[in-house]
Amino acid sequence: MPDSPTPADVVVIGGGPGGYVAAIRAAQLGLSVVCVEMDRTLGGTCVNVGCIPSKALLESSHHFEFMGHDASKHGIGLADLRIDVEAMLKRKDDVVGQNTKGIEFLFRKNKITWAKGRGTLRAGNVVEVAGGPPDNNVTSYQAKHVIIATGSVPIELPFLKFDEERILSNVGALTIPKVPQHLIVVGGGIIGLELGSVWRRLGAEVVVLEALDTFLPMADGAVAKEALKHFKKLGLDVRLGAKVSGADKSANGVTLKYTDASGEGSVTVDKVVVAIGRRPFTKDLLADGTGVQLDERGFVKVDHDCKTGVANVWAIGDLVRGPMLAHKGKEEGVMVADLIAGKVAEVNYKTIPSVIYTAPEIAWVGQTEEEVKKSGRAYKVGQFPFLASGRARAMESTSGFCKVISATDDDEILGVHIIGPLAGELIAEAVLALEYSASTEDIQRTIHAHPTLSEALHEAALNADKIAIDFPNR
Question: For residues 458, 459, 463 and 466, what is the CA-based torsion angle, rounded to 10 degrees?
Fold first, then answer.
């Protein structure tokens, strides 16, 4: 290791959503900041091969689906509809490039040093950065504070090793050069459903093999049931309780063997997307003697404030407990930077929203009805279908509903669950409501513009007390 490490107030290991946000926030607070990132671009998985490119493809595939199936309802006639996958992928890459260049610009404006290479934390809060070939240069920094934010990587099945040609992770699934005839998605979670939806809309036959017997177990039961109905309507062949046991690659494609309630089965497809979850990325991260501890699943152990237990060493994002969501990592990054600067800060883990960007979109915050029921707290439910929304009818997007769960005793909103058009945008009002411990009556007495989709949340809140206006109260 080189002598005389360069001093810095804060060294962030990882330039993904948590890391780059922590770096910017710390710099805004007047601290000298170094951000270590080994990829050729900043932004991490989310910006480069996750959230942003997948949403770009989802948007493109949504337009294609609309043109082919729904445009005629608007009086729009189309002939010779086709998809140029190469152009679609280029647009996706352009969107990614705009985002990564934007982060680089913000680093320059905030005078943040980007240390390009793989970061390793050593004892005494020294961060060593291996630059890699061709120079293989090694630099080191003596940090007053270290923020570890190296994120996560996709989990690989031992008999389905990623080659990113036929056996694909989320990375390969975003670069398929032409629409496959047959595609299997192993895993019916958020990533699998989003990626499967993209290629199904573009014409592929898509089978989703989910090992669990329940669909979207993390979501509210009523929402999950509604979602499964619509995904099947879209043409996704979702098979629950299907456990993949083996795979054979040949010139004809990939043959997967699996078992389900019907017994053993197999299916041969062009490509397989494996989306069974992600695990913390800690390779070469911690040298001996740092004192930073990992739990039995490989996550860095932290307390509520993201402190690792080692003086001035923090960890955030996918690397630590809690949902693996970019916005959760971002908020932890802001919190840690504020705490380092001596400010009061915290993350309210009870109000972290989740969004699935399928069609219809799915979003929720707070407790599901099943969780509230299990807690034993008396509650009431209000629900309103988009079928009764004037704005949704005008958009020809009437699938789904808004659902509000509130406590019977003090009317506090406990959870909000939305499946329908722009659910990911609509959930923001619900997040704010939970952050302020709002009541159902607070939503009821808040004026919502007409005609808007947000009125569905208003009506759902009214329905909780059986006073909805635009739909019969049940």
Answer: 110
The verdict on whether 450 is a catalytic residue reads yes
Pairing mode of beta strands 6-13, 138-148: parallel
**DSSP secondary structure string, 20-48?**
HHHHHHHHHTT--EEEEE-SSSSSHHHHH
3-state secondary structure of 55: helix
Quote the radius of gyration of the chain (alpha carbons, Å): 24
DSSP, residue by residue, 223-250:
HHHHHHHHHHHHT-EEEET-EEEEEEEE
Could you read off the pLDDT of 155-211 as tens digits, one per residue? 999 999 999 999 999 999 999 999 999 999 999 999 999 999 999 999 999 999 999
Q: Which of 62, 69, 450, 458 is catalytic?
A: 450
Give the pLDDT confidence of 55-91 residue by residue, as tens digits.
999 999 999 999 998 899 999 988 889 999 999 999 9
In the three-class reduction of DSSP (H, G, I as helix; E, B as strand; rest coil), residue 301 is classed as: coil
| Of residues 396, 392, 399, the one with CA closest to residue 455 | 392
For the chain, first and last CA: distance in Å?
Answer: 70
- Residue 160 to residue 472: CA distance in whole angstroms: 51
Q: Does an H or E element contain 380, and which?
A: strand 379-385
- The mean pLDDT of the chain is 96
Pairing type for strands 361-366 and 413-420 reads: antiparallel
* Distance in angstroms (rounded) separating the CA atoms of residues 214 and 225: 10
pLDDT of residue 3: 62
Q: Edge-to-edge strand order for the sheet containing 205-210?
A: 167-168, 271-274, 182-186, 205-210, 237-240
Q: Strand runs (DSSP E) across 131-204, as ranges?
A: 138-148, 152-154, 167-168, 182-186
Task: Give the helix, strand, coil percentages of the chain, each rounded to 5.
Answer: 35, 25, 40
Distance, in Å, from the CA atom of 31 to the CA atom of 201, rounded to the nearest integer, reads 48
Kindly report the backbone phi and psi dihedral angles of residue 311, in degrees, each rounded to the nearest multiple of 5, phi listed first.
-55, 125
